[in-house]
Specification:
With 173 residues, the protein is mainly beta. It has helices at 75-79, 103-106; strands at 8-18, 23-28, 41-46, 49-61, 64-69, 85-89, 110-113, 118-126, 133-137, 142-146, 152-156, 161-164. The chain has two helices and twelve strands; from the N terminus they run βββββαβαββββββ. Residues 104-169 form the Ribosome maturation factor RimM PRC barrel domain.
């Protein structure tokens, strides 16, 4: 049974309607989009609303996941779901291989350079279809850091700390 106090993780975002039967187009934020096929329902969150919708069927179209929800049968109804975050209960997330992390786990981590200089906190991770970009909000400005294995020295989720060693010239400190 799902409780309101459960923790949720984002697995995608509805970008628009698809077709005229109430389907929605979801940009997955998971590296394993096939995981959508295992779901019977998802939670949607936008602005002030949070609710659960049951999935009628799922298919893929290019890089998108197309979802048809029960009770959403028109373009107008599907359009109302635009920009909703698609969530699952955290307990349903996959166990990841070593040295792989969920974006939600990285947001809020403090970022330090290898010389122990505090850079700021992770506020977002942007999927670029290549090397992801970590957005770090420092005291004076924001930094866009490539999430490159060569530059990330350590990620300690317990301590909420990331040690980063940028290439020369990447940061203007």
């Amino acid at each position: 049974m799902i409780k309101l106090q459960d923790k949720y993780i984002e697995i995608g975002k509805i970008t628009r309607y698809q077709g005229n039967k109430g389907e929605v187009r979801v940009m997955p934020s998971t590296d394993i989009p096939q995981r959508f096929f295992e779901l019977d329902s998802v939670f949607l969150k936008n602005a002030d609303e949070f609710y659960e919708l049951e999935i009628e069927y799922i298919r893929f179209h290019k890089q998108f996941v197309i979802i048809k929800f029960f009770g959403i049968d028109s373009i107008d109804q599907a359009e109302e779901l635009k920009n909703s975050r698609v969530l699952i209960v955290e307990s349903e997330k996959y166990l990841l291989p070593e040295d792989s992390y969920y974006v939600d786990d990285l947001v809020g981590c403090k970022v330090y350079l290898s010389d122990d200089t505090y850079l700021g906190k992770v506020i977002e991770v942007v999927d670029t279809s290549g090397t992801d970009i970590i957005i770090v909000k420092g005291e004076a400005k924001e930094y866009m850091l490539p999430a490159s294995r060569e530059m990330i020295i350590e990620i300690d989720l317990e301590a909420e700390k990331i040690i980063y060693n940028p290439i020369q010239g990447l940061l203007d400190l």
